[in-house]
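Late entry, written up from scratch paper. The run itself happened at the end of the previous shift, but nothing got recorded in the book at the time, so transcribing now.
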Amino acid sequence: MLERLSRGLRLLRDRSGQAAVEFALIAPAFFLIMFGVMDFGRAMWINSTIEHAAAEGARYAAIRGQGKPTVATESDVKSYVQNRAPGLDSKQLTVNVTWAPSNVEGGTVTVRVGYPYEFLMTGFLPIDPIQFGRSSTMVIN
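Output as recorded:
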């Protein structure tokens, strides 16, 4: 009888496995935060990339107006913008180019770039995809 009581007291004082239990309790929250930070960073990178691509596309169109040796067309600007967005799926990248009033010196060109973003965390949290969109306007020289 004393032997059983002694063995029971030893088990109560035993600390083996304590770290594994603590890790099992903390790990889900830790990984959720880590993947959330990575997902947010990825979203900011995509936003920055399409903003840069829109500015580059507007610059490309602005210096290639009517009367220049190489005149920029809408398809030229779209292709240029897609090449300026490395790491993004060019099939999902939407590019709209508008000239006001036309592609002549003194007019303006606006390039709008859009890209859908789906969070990696959708398996854990109910987050809907979002559509990033950026635009840039420049005066044609």
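The longest strand covers residues 108-117.
(Scratch paper discarded after transcription.)
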